[in-house]
Amino acid sequence: MADILVKKIACIGAGYVGGPTMAMIALNCPEIEVVVVDINEARIKAWNSDKLPIYEPGLDEVVKAARGRNLFFSTDTKKHVGEADVVFVSVNTPTKTTGIGAGRAADLTYWEGAARLIASVSTGSKIVVEKSTVPVKTAEAIGKVLKRNCSSPGVNFEILSNPEFLAEGTAIEDLRKPDRVAHAIGTDSRIGPKFLNASVGFGGSCFQKDILNLCYVCETLNLKEVADYWAAVVTMNDYQKQRFVERVLGAMFNTVANKKIAVMGFAFKKDTGDTRETPAIDVCKGLIRDGAKVSIFDPQVTSDQVFRDLSTSKFEWDRPDYSRSHTRILDNVKVCSSPTEAMEGSHAICVLTEWDEFKTYDYQAVYDKMCKPAFVFDGRNILDHDKLREIGFIVYALGKPLDPFLQKNY
Ligand code: NAD
């Protein structure tokens, strides 16, 4: 196996991990052909267009430099996986929604499907690299699937476990200058200062899913107390989002019915258009349930995505059924194309994503066009609260002393 000369790499899964990671490999290894394959035609089409399917600072430049040279995106999974010397697997591993372990365990259907595909088209030995987040011992299980399903004699599979640590929003920068070259994991700044910030709740495709899966693994090993400990992290996160909605409601005289509320930011964090498990979904649903008219602005999230998220059940987003239709039953939701449109005439502003541009607005002008009292609920603690109070806003900031206005009973 050690003598495999790598001429071609295939990556199964053209998502947030597969796309950027392979683009960087292609950029830096021009002598290797890199092909990213996916069953999702729309996604592949977008990777081959001027409007890439995901937003990551710096990604456009990297893709443009390598695409068509030694970087390709294709739906012909069999051809490219068959020809590759190394196959990266970065398919989705969602939380199970039915059966044993539903709501907690990882659904390995897509992973196993990818393994069966590799086995069925391999005529020569390959290195298979698992990048998806999978439970311990998956490499062993996949090894068995590969071995039992490959009919070509003499084919060997070397399975490398290389779980992804990508952080959306800084993926390209992190790939260029990986923190772990220089420091032990404890000083990795993506785990330290960049993540330990106050927020309305954590989101993203991985963290909750991985914690639930960890709970499940603990349970199957009879470590119930340990499982309960980790489950509490998710419970606290749900509580944080619920508490934020209650805070908005309580401050606004216990009714938000028919009040316009500007929701600033829908992505789960800044510098990405990713909305998977974003806290904005639960916060918006909470406000809508109480009759608020929600006006959402996010620099990178499309209105289709917002409507899909607000009409999709929990965990369903992580399946490659992108054709799912959504009905526009959400009459009280408006997705705005400018911040002014979202905030003008509103009773309150809820900051749910820490986009830098939110700090730069002329809040005096915003205040002048809002209903009074004008509230700001800063779910990310990014705004200048003293300045906002000087202007006249009633400001709620996470973990900070309450505004005198909010301390009184109504
Ligand atoms: P994603 O949903 O964006 O992309 C996965 C892609 O795999 C989808 O486009 C899907 O159509 C494709 N796919 C599924 N089965 C396939 C098959 N048989 N053949 C071809 N394509 C197939 O997911 P992602 O965010 O890129 O995450 C991938 C994995 O990496 C997950 O296990 C996730 O937990 C892990 N991960 C993600 C991140 C992140 O920041 N997004 C970070 C660390 C780890």
Automatic annotation (TrEMBL):
Coiled coil: none annotated. Pathway: Nucleotide-sugar biosynthesis; UDP-alpha-D-glucuronate biosynthesis; UDP-alpha-D-glucuronate from UDP-alpha-D-glucose: step 1/1. The active site is at residue 206. GO terms for molecular function: NAD binding; UDP-glucose 6-dehydrogenase activity. Substrate binds at residues 165-168, 195-199, 203, 269. NAD(+) binds at residues 38, 43, 93, 133, 168, 209, 276. Residues 262-385 form the UDP-glucose/GDP-mannose dehydrogenase C-terminal domain. It comes from the Eukaryota. It holds the Pfam family UDPG_MGDP_dh_N. One of its GO terms (biological process) is polysaccharide biosynthetic process. It catalyses: UDP-alpha-D-glucose + 2 NAD(+) + H2O = UDP-alpha-D-glucuronate + 2 NADH + 3 H(+). GO terms for cellular component: nucleus. The keyword NAD applies. The keyword Metal-binding does not apply. InterPro entries: 6-PGluconate_DH-like_C_sf, NAD(P)-bd_dom_sf, UDP-Glc/GDP-Man, UDP-Glc/GDP-Man_DH_C, UDP-Glc/GDP-Man_DH_C_sf, UDP-Glc/GDP-Man_DH_N, UDPglc_DH_bac, UDPglc_DH_euk. Keywords: NAD. Its EC number is 1.1.1.22. Signal peptide: none annotated. Belongs to the UDP-glucose/GDP-mannose dehydrogenase family. This is UDP-glucose 6-dehydrogenase. The lineage of its organism: Eukaryota, Viridiplantae, Chlorophyta, core chlorophytes, Chlorophyceae.
